[in-house]
Fold each of these.
Amino acid sequence: MFNHKKNLPIIFILGSLTAPSISHAAQTDLNFRLRFESAEQDNPLKDASSLTLRTRLTHKTDEVNGFSALIEVEDSRSLLGVDDYNNTLGKNTNYSVIADPETTEIDQGFIKYAKDALAIKVGRQVIALDGQRFVGHVGFRQDRQTFDAATVNYTFDDINLHYSYISKRNRIFADSKDIDSSDHLINASFKTSVGKVVLYSYLLSNDAVDDDSLDTYGVSFNGNKTLSDIKFYYKAEYATQSASTSMSDFDADYYAFEGGIDLVGLGETVTLKAGIESLGSDNGDYGFATPLATMHKFNGWADTFLATPAQGLDDTYVSLNGKAFAGKWLVAYHSFDVNDNVNGVDDLGSELNVQYVKPINKTYAIGAKYADYSAGDSAAGKVDTQKLWIWVSAKF
């Protein structure tokens, strides 16, 4: 990480010599991630493999009288000819998909004003709300998701108010698949002694589709509590959604419940969590959608359910995570079922996820993870899928 501070010129105000107020020095960051990924599916597609390098250069200016700016360039390249994969842009379509196309683009570029409880940001930016279930940056992919937006945050005491207007969704598939939109994100949260409560309204519209709207209203509560030296985790969430185009209208509900506990006495603390997440259906014709979410984080890393089936999706899961050899490990198991049993489909399969990440020092880290999805009812149209990732990252 490189830090430097510019010598800003003094300015004259009403005939007097006054220096601008500088609260934060400029900063430049350079970040690399080299990753091998493979994908195997039980279908006619060829097994895919990729070796890609993502480079991200970020520069933040001095903050002067509350104003600052940030510019960030991101590049993703295939290396050493390891590029036998469908990159989602029409290359190698006879291979399985690995959604890391080669691209160079402005990842972020915004002006920010921050004063006391108020922060305003205008331009291309990362927006990640709560656990990224509805709005996130999809940071696991080499070309992460950002938004052309105007954002206002106001924080006082234990309350945070957030509003964003999004005019463009810069998705993970390079510039050619970005979406012009008219999206409104409203999120209000407040902390209590037992957890955090969030109320949200996400009103989305794809400008390329006539009369398109996707309106989601929800509430969530999550927190943790230590009783008799044992730490407990808990989460509950509910949302309702209305989807509309010039052709049809649909409604669906969402709910999630999760509980967890720290298991002590095993050398290192191990956290056990279990829960269910339900993305509802409208009579088997429409599944609850989260188009701005970091979807790779939910419903299994094999990315089988990036689009919710029309019958909906119930994901019952259990996970264990802890530390070993100065790194962090995680094991999770998912069991998938339809939310609305129609057309002879009930069982949507199961998936095992395993991950280990280890920092080498403050600069370098290594990681590996594996996903093994087993298909359920054949009528669901899913296939057995195995994916592997091995990576090294560096930040300066």
Amino acid sequence: MVLKADDKKNNNNRPKPSRQADRPQSAPGTSPFAEKPGLDVRLAAAKILAAVVDKRTPLDGMLDAGHGNPAYKVLSDADRALTRAILNATLRHMPRIEAAIASLLDTPLPAGARALQHVLLIGAAQILYLDIPAHAAVDLAVEQANRDPRNRRFAKLVNAILRRLERERDVILEQSSKISPVPDWYRKRLDKAYGADDAFKIAEAQLTPAPIDLTVKADREVWAERLKAKILPTGSLRLAAFDGKIPSLDGFDEGAWWVQDAAAAIPAQLFGDIAGKRIADLCAAPGGKTAQLAAMGAKVVAIEQSANRTVRLRENLARLDLDVEILETDLFDYRPEELLDGVLLDAPCSSTGTTRRHPDVLWTKGISDIEKLAGLQARMLRHAVTLVRPGGLIVFSNCSLDPLEGEELVARLVAEDPSVERVSIRSGDWPGLEQAINAAGEFRTTPAMLPPGDGYAGGMDGFFACVLRRR
């Protein structure tokens, strides 16, 4: 395993990496890497990246301040933020980073050299995609390699690869821009569902972090002016670039609004006028859609199975001062005494539409997960139908981009169950989102929709939503 020939001569004059094996151990209770500022961050990033891509461990849990990865928990707030930035950049661009590294090698890295691969990936992500001094990224990556007995013999290689990435950054970025930034299994799913051109646009859109969208209880125009926000076709308010904390914003303490992606604000609105009607939200936490239903005047029953998520649901609704009946129970056990006017089922899914916020999803999930979740959703949807009166509505939604969890699932239900009919959503009712209504009259949003403009970011989560009526 060597660098390609055109870089070998440049490697000879580079400084030799320092040996770290004989350094004294730190005193108990102190960081063993305190003498090398920034190294703790890179070590934590490499450990967490390994857990995501090799063990398919979700990122959010490892970045939890109280119960997360030990290497992350000991960091300062600033270092935690940097760790998150490095991980997000690496996961968003990983196929391109891997291709860039491979292009500099005569032979591939050994199949078992996963720890080395992780060091190179996070180092390259800093050089190619983050505003971090390249010399710091290189130096700390070499230090990482020297500290790990598995990687020490590759320290010079790490130095050479990353320095070459620094020198040829613009050319490498241009070449890699033609590579889809999503895993191959997912790219094939997107190609099949949307066609190669739209699939590439969707994949590109997930590289941009999601903006902050708000749903307001009332007085949309007033709050748009007060928050200097843009009103979207979904009725959501989109904030301009915002670096502060959400609770510091005007209107938070008084419960005037809540954070909710523009696409997630669509399903509740598909019921139409529900003032005074009895509606159940079957997977209610964290409560954004529940809050919408209540703010629209419905008599809402919120169903949530998880005890922890129920606590969060109660807290969110209390801040918003909305009156909702909350039941902590399995939705399959829920049987109302009187059939309902409507049910909202925003079902658990693969979450492939949320990769702007959760880039780890594409590395922790696969087609087998999608198939399993689609089966669960079908069971949930069939149960939801039994909860509404004849003529009652069922709004089914999820944040997956895969038709197996959306269009195909609903088509199969309608074909097999004569008690259910699809209610077409009219594109004319959604100016600015006409392209999101498919031929069957269902919503299908993607991250490539809602182009940026007027100083505001574009995009929205990938969402599927449809309306069914019980005959």
Amino acid sequence: MARNKYFFPFIMITSLFFMWGFVHNLDPILIPHLKRSFSLNNLQSSLVDSSVFIAYLLMAIPAGILVKNYGYKSGIITGLMLFALGSFLFIPAADTGQYLFFLGALFIIACGLTILETVANPYVSLLGDPETATRRLNFAQSFNGLAASMAPIIGARLILTKGSSDEELNAMTESARQLSLAAEASSVKTPYLILGGVILAIALIFYFIRLPEIKQDDEQGESKNVFHALRHKHLSWAVAAQFFYVGAQVCIFSFFILYAVEVAQIDKVVAADYLGWGCGLAFMVGRFIGVFFMRFIASERLLAIYSVLCILLCIPAIFMQGYIAIYSVIGIAFFMSIMFPTIFSLGIKGLGRDTEYGSSLIVMAIVGGAVLPLIFGYIADKTGSLQFGHVVSLGCFVIILAFALKGHKIVKNEMLNG
């Protein structure tokens, strides 16, 4: 009975993981595209990530309040409507040719994604046996990995148009050059128009279906506020670990095309294929294999093993050249695949009625994707090499290892129990 009751809702919620994974993994295509169209440096182009992930800092707590007061279904529909609105705003952004307008559209999309992630991650964890929550969340997140493999391949062919060569642009008058670059920038209109339409259709489906409301039974009573939830020390650790994990993931994926062009002197479209068929596919397969391994290895132990392997792979990614460097980064994508859902599920474990607020705090930690790429871009600009930016990634995996070894243990934070 319970299995039948949860099956279709689980499928629909899992579709959300795919959709936000798809739009997030268009960002690595947008970065080199907009960098060329607006003649940006690495630090300026990283504002694409900052405009997306700053929304997680600003919207996560309001999203948690929305879910707590109005339920999971209302949160999903609200998130999808913002997602669609931001996608449609890419059309006037391309028409005006203003970089700031693109950043604004991305911010609105990310506000919708913040709500969706605040809803979907704990909902999947709670939609069944608590003992299998981590495996269930990793399985749902695997479709996020599927999107990570598809989005760069599709996006590169729709967005990374050939346009004029650098030599041709330099030979043009300033007005002709601006017109040519504006024409390249407008290639985003059709993909985001289609994306917005698909999201509206999904929102309509959610409006008409019935989702089971999950009630939290906890003898401690109602959660007081979001800061009260931090009395759980393992939640505080999870917030920190998620901040650094998302920062590392965004640095690795968003700069991959520029990184691959630098270390192996390959074309941007070829680099996008390596991002999709290499990093994206490795990320997806890593998730499915991780779900299998979690049947035999405790999730926190597997997280520790994968963290160590990511640290080791960062070394050739920083110091080697050519395809060895590229394959090292692909290896990192494989082993970091289980990190987000595993950190999330370990962080909200045992929170009871603090679950919604705890979920908001972990989602808010996604702001690491806004902060750490700026540091990555700054290091790359100062050293003249994107490879040295991966020092940031290495440091992030060290923090995640500490969470896996110690921070995940459930101990109440006495200082905040007050």
Amino acid sequence: MSVDPRLRSILGGSAGNLVEWYDWYVYSAFTLYFAPVIFPKASATAQLLNAAAIFAVGFLMRPVGAWAMGIYADRHGRKSALTLSVTLMCAGAFLIAVTPTYAAIGWGAPALLVVARLLQGLSVGGEYGASAVYLSEMAGRERRGFYSSFQYVTLVGGQIAALCVLLLLQAVLSEAQLETWGWRIPFAVGGLLAIAVFRIRRGLIETESFTNAAAAGPPRSSALALFREHPREAATVMLLTAGGTLAFYAYTTYMQKFLVNTSGFDRETATWIMTAALIVYAAVQPLAGALSDRVGRKPLMVAFGVAGVLATVPIFLALERVANPWAALALVLAALLIVTGYTSINAVVKAELFPAHIRTLGVALPYALANTIFGGTAEYAALWLKKAGLERGFYWYVTAMIGVSLLVYLRMRDTRVHSRIVED
């Protein structure tokens, strides 16, 4: 039985996205193990702070990747940009896998880690916009929210895969083995998977939106054209992203460290809690995406904003005192279900704001700027405030930024009704 080419391309693009984000998130999942051997001896929090700083450095390249590959995707095709991004991710993963320890080469070890994360930041900067636009354009008008939600299914799937690899290695290797050499395994696996994705993406078909825009000729995509001709849309993407991306990174990548450093769970229990929560979270994304196809995008984003403002501080305060893993799981799930109102539809909302000839850059660059400022620094800000004895300030910071985004959600038009993706 033959598979519809559109559906095959959506599945192929989603599978590639999963591997890309596995390679990105495996760094965060294994930070607790490689930080002691890559950085100088210090307190556990100080070593995690160094690793979080390099995690944030990777985000500095994301706007550069978004700019370069956003323009590349608008001028040469979404398929070509997706293939290029996975090549860069592959190089970064293999470099981390072979990076020597601090004991072997001193400060050369964290320096190599920085280079690898810069490559991966460049890759992810281009990946987000290209995959968001590819899935949104490839999906039909009536199911655009549903199919585009698979971007976050696979994004979270990459994080789940990283945690599952961590659980497997925790089961078969000792703590000493993981800290000595076992942490290198997931990065080598990521590099090999990226090679397989390269072959998959070479076989994707191009979207009708890009084909039509290319046939129409000028105008062409550029950063100047974006901010001169679409300033309101670009500002909307930045502001609607700010609260959503900060909440997402607070509840996912940082939460694993929070459960260990603040709640007091051991590393294995914290990994199990996050894995279970993220599996449920990923499964909910298509349901919320499908709901947006029926009721619109705006109600979901407003629901996230209101619930995030009201519940963020109480959830973190409860997690400070929680002792039961099941109670911790319920609290983390509550936070993730709230942020679903943003994550499930943010790709399609942004894509629907821009015309095809500048759509990838319009989605990618403002998002990457906001993501770098708020998402990439989330862990560092949380750990810095904790080290300074002001940990609860982070809870209020997340709440405030969700409130800023809520104001944007309340004022913007519903993109399901006013979409600029004209193809069916």
